[in-house]
Amino acid sequence: MKLLNEIHSLFDDTLQHVDWPLMVTTVAGLLVSFPIATVIYRIWFHPLSKIPGPRLAAATWLVEFYYNCICKGQYYKKIEEWHKVYGPVIRITPHEVHVNDPDTYSHLYKTNAKVTKDPLYYQRFAGDINVLFFAKDTATHRSRRDPLNNYFSKKSVAEFEAVIVKHIDKLCRYLKQHAENSQGPIDLHYRIRCIVLDIFSDYAFGKSFSFQDSSSLGKDFFDMIRVHMASLWLFRMMTPGMVYWITHLPPFIALKLDPSASTYVKLKEDSKAAIKKIRDDPKAGDLRKENRTVFYDMLHPHDDDGNPIAPKSLDDLSDEAYGLTVASSDTTGNGVHATMLGILSNPEVYAKLKEEFKKAFPTSESKITWAKLEKIPFMVACIKEGLRISCGVIGRMPRIVEEPYFQVLGYHIPRGYSVTTSNYMMLRNETIYEDPHDYKPSRWLDENGNLHTHLDKYFVPFGKDSRHCIGMYLAQSELYLSVAHLVHRFDMKIADESHHHSVKDLDYIDCFVSMAKDVDKASLKVIVTSSD
Ligand code: HEM
Predict the structure, then answer these.
(1) Residue 441: helix, strand or coil by DSSP?
(2) Which of 33, 152, 194, 335 has the lowest CB atom count within 10 Å?
């Protein structure tokens, strides 16, 4: 008690002797001068200060925040404009340099480049979580990717083809019935996305989400992904720890704070339950032979010598499930959407493709297979155009320099800073593609209708380096098979009521993956006039 009184009187004494005006002036001075000093340092004395670009973007992250958070995912368009003013190498945040030069892409994103994913960017997706997409260093990345590589190989995906076609057939049956009853326009926007996720969930868990059967066609789910991905730009202003806690709140708290989080909570809980079921089912190993599942392999990992090792925790596996689900959803969905829109809005392309299919699959018994489709040059050209226009990952893919410096077009970016470009800059680059915003399969073909290869080094929808897309073959098989079934088996045209009539109507925002700017105006309504 005596001690407490002494502390109290000491405190009183000190407060009485404080020079308050001086104290307030000092604190205010510090508050004002610290940001000013930071801005002066970033613009004139920072290791990136010699890089051209708007000074405001070099001075503060608020510029990115403004274009991405307030203007909703528009920074990529502003960056494109700035390149026209300041040249191919520009500084777009205090710590990041953006390059718009097609040849630098393969230099930056090559398998043995001494760069790693920028944690200041990638860890804002969901915090520092233990999943493939966010692995920081090369060794951790290899340990997460190697066990999955085989699983997502072209051979493994081809073995799964019957299940992929089963889900596409379900949509075809629905469209056939619809055409027979001539029920007017039908919107393919959500139906396409449903197929993609029904296939992915079957592949991953051995049990489909069955969104095609739900009355809402999974709308809540796709809205949830949209909200989460759009939060990336807000999360970017937080620490990875804060982002982790926001995205990993216990279900009952998340639901209290935001009832619309229920789809997210349900997905996490459902994934966990599905993974648990595979773990606890003694027959899951047998099941895998007929009906492969990613998570069986992830629950039974092996080291390089083939010895069993401990699997990840259920929580980490359900994070992985969420990551893969998001990665596979709008990317592939937009790819199918853009390809169908491109084909249907170009009557000559549509007629030519139908003719090619009639030759390749002449009778109703002719089986449409991915292998056969890849041998039709015009079909390959149509899919490439769809992937180019939809640009699955529209956002930048920043890499931290690990060598003493990274040299780009006469500039040195020192170790520890971030260099980036984007697939959008590559796939819509007017120095590579004439009329880059148009859907023109002919650009991929020579005068004899054969595929040429001179643009292939710039065709990077799935990335190029060791972090390139692991789901590339799964996505491609879904694209080829779904587009071919829809075009070959039906006669359809874009309905007047559709919001999308040409690929120029696709207005994407950057949520790392491309998302429709206005989802209510993202319909692809078609009239199905007849079927085979
Ligand atoms: C048309 C569809 C797709 C496109 C255009 C696409 C594009 C990409 C790109 C550009 C990257 C590199 C991102 C970066 O470096 O930051 C990537 C990575 C990734 N993608 Fe895809 N993707 C598609 C479909 C899928 C599917 C279906 C899956 C899931 C099965 C998937 C899973 C992943 C994963 C896990 C990574 C991270 C790989 C790593 O870090 O090693 N993607 N994707």
Answers:
(1) helix
(2) 33
User: How wide is the angle at C-alpha 250 spanned by C-alphas 248 and 256, nearest 5°?
Assistant: 110
From the centroid of its chain, how far is CA 5?
62
Q: Which residues contact 28 (CB under 8 A, 6 or more apart)?
A: none
Distance, CA of 80 to CA of 390 (rounded, Å): 17
Q: Which fold has domain 55-531?
A: Cytochrome p450 (1.10.630)
pLDDT digits (tens, 9 = 90+) for 291-329: 567 887 788 777 777 777 788 888 888 888 888 998 999
Atom of ligand 1 nearest to the CA of 460: 10
This prediction has a pTM of: 0.91
Residue 176 and residue 172: Cα distance in Å, rounded?
A: 6
Ligand 1 pocket: which of 142, 331, 399 to mutate (most atoms within 8 A of CB): 331
Length of the chain: 532
From the DSSP assignment, how many helices (H) and strands (E) are in the chain?
24, 12
What integer pLDDT is reported at residue 494 of this predicted model?
A: 97
Tokens of 103: 């040849």
Tell me, using a 6 A CB cutoff, whether residue 327 lines ligand 1.
yes
Give Cβ neighbours of residue 259 (< 8 Å, ≥ 6 apart). Answer: none
The amino acid at residue 397 is M
Decide: 474 in ligand 1 pocket, CB within 6 A. Answer: yes
Question: What does the pLDDT read at residue 295?
Answer: 82
Please tell me if the CB atom of residue 341 comes closer than 6 angstroms to any atom of ligand 1.
no
Determine the 3-state secondary structure of 403 from DSSP.
coil
Ligand 1, residue 392: give the atom nearest the CA.
Answer: 5
Question: Distance from the CA of 322 to the center of ligand 1, in angstroms?
Answer: 13
377-390 vs 472-489: helix crossing angle, rounded to 10: 120
CA pair distance 421, 104, nearest whole angstrom: 9
Tell me, using a 6 A CB cutoff, whether residue 333 lines ligand 1.
no
Residues of the chain with pLDDT under 70: 1-4, 10-11, 14-15, 259-261, 282-292, 531
Quick one: tokens of 94? 């205090």
Q: What is the pLDDT of residue 25?
A: 83
Residue position matching structure tokens 């326009």: 185
CA distance 249 to 243: 10
Q: Are strands 418-420 and 96-99 parallel, antiparallel or unpaired?
A: parallel
CB of 393 shorter than 6 A to ligand 1: yes
pLDDT reported for residue 10: 67
- Which residues lie below 8 Å from residue 219, measured CB to CB, with a gap of 6+? 190
| Token digits of residue 4 | 């407490």
Q: How far is the CA of 468 from the centre of ligand 1 (A)?
A: 6
Number of Cβ within 10 Å of residue 457's Cβ equals 13
Tell me if 154 sits within 8 A of 194, measured CB to CB: no
DSSP β-ladder status, 418-420 and 399-401: antiparallel
Sketch the domain layout of the chain as residue ranges: 2-45, 55-531
Q: Write the burial class of residue 68 (CB in 10 Å: 0-12 exposed, 13-18 middle, 19+ buried).
A: buried
